[in-house]
Amino acid sequence: MNNNSSLRIAIQKGGRLSEKTLNLLENIGLEFDNYKNRILVPCRNYDVELLLIRDDDIPEYVQDGICELGFVGHNVTAESKADVTGLRALGFGKCRLSVAVPKNNGIKTLKDLDGCRIATSYPVLTRDHFEKQGIRIKTIEISGAVEIAPTLNVADAIADIVSTGGTLKTNGLVELETILNSQAELIQTNQPIDAHKSELIEKLLSRIGARQQAEKSRYIMMNAPSGAVERICDIIPSLKSPTVLPLAENDMVAIHSVIPTDRFWEVMEELKSAGASGIVILPIENMIV
Ligand code: PRP
Ligand code: ZN
Predict the structure, then answer these.
(1) Of 160, 182, 204, which residue is a domain's last?
(2) Fewest C-beta in 10 Å: which of 88, 108, 183, 264?
(3) Ligand 1 contacts CB of residue 221 (under 6 A)
(4) What are the strands of the beta sheet with 277-283, ordered from one edge?
(5) Ligand 2 centre from 144 Cα, in Å?
(6) How far is 80 from 57, CA to CA, in rounded Å?
(7) What tens digit of pLDDT does each residue of 122-164 get?
(8) Does one domain contain both 58 and 75?
(9) Residue 141 Cα to ligand 1 middle (Å)
(10) pTM of the predicted model, to two decimals?
(11) Does the beta carbon of 164 sit less than 6 angstroms from any atom of ligand 1?
């Protein structure tokens, strides 16, 4: 258990997720200094400290209550089978655990791997996946550079993390099937948490929510003839009705609103054809809805 009165959060020390995790924490207003070469990092303006450890160790630390929270890839938590609660998917660090085989070796489906050796750093998830389909395999547990195993004839296939697919390609491997889709997530201990720390967690979650909402949205401003307002309002799928301000120029108005980031280009083109001009799009830092 964490007997310290500060909330303790585990994050990956170096690696794919650490930079994005630290960015997220800074974007929600937490200030840390000197986290290089430190394991426990205090925060200057929030009652929290970071524990920087190997990602594989995070689920267990959180399970045991050494840390109340952890930022880690879902793949790592799933493999660990740790008793923790997933609080939020974070939208970054997207990857998948996939079975891959050497190109042109005649293996077309998972069933063709019956009796084969699979090299992986994810033996638990891999065995589960094959077992469910009644396919017998032997897992060869390797902690890194799994993709080289078939070339070395240590295994017939692999089950490994794929992000861009670059590593598989370089090693002449092709994906056969996805075992698990993953992204970074925030996990919480199932051990008892005191009132002070619970409150800190609530506040962190609401800040993360505001940040995630903001990232999904853009602030849009444009000018338009007042006669076009109605059509423009139909186009903008805003949360509330847009703000319409009269301009000094004859019969022109300025319209301000919020649009979903993923509809940006579509909306932009429709607005132009409806008569909007001087369209400006701004990122939103935080958004409390
Ligand atoms: C994973 C995996 C591959 C690579 C795939 O390792 O083991 O080597 O990423 O990424 P790509 O599809 O973009 O080429 P990771 O960097 O997560 O390191 P780790 O296995 O040491 O934790
Ligand atoms: Zn790792």
Answers:
(1) 182
(2) 108
(3) no
(4) 243-246, 252-260, 217-225, 277-283
(5) 8
(6) 9
(7) 999 999 999 999 999 999 999 999 999 999 999 999 999 999 9
(8) yes
(9) 16
(10) 0.87
(11) yes
Q: Is there a domain that residue 26 lies in?
A: yes
Lowest mean pLDDT of 21-25, 206-210, 237-241, name the range. 237-241
Residue 156: per-residue pLDDT: 97
Q: What is the pLDDT of residue 248?
A: 87
Nearest CA to ligand 1 atom 7: 161
Helix (H) or strand (E) holding 116: none
Based on the fold, state whether residues 189 and 62 are members of the same structural domain. Answer: yes
CA of 149 to the centre of ligand 1 (A): 14
Q: Which residue has the tokens 């932009």?
A: 268
- Whichever domain contains 44, its CATH number is 3.40.190.10
> 209 and 226 in one domain?
no
Q: Are strands 184-189 and 84-89 parallel, antiparallel or unpaired?
A: antiparallel
Q: Which of 182, 200, 234 is the last residue of a domain?
A: 182
For 83-97, the pLDDT digits (tens) are: 999 999 999 999 999
Identify whether the C-beta of residue 211 lies closer than 8 Å to the C-beta of residue 24. Answer: yes
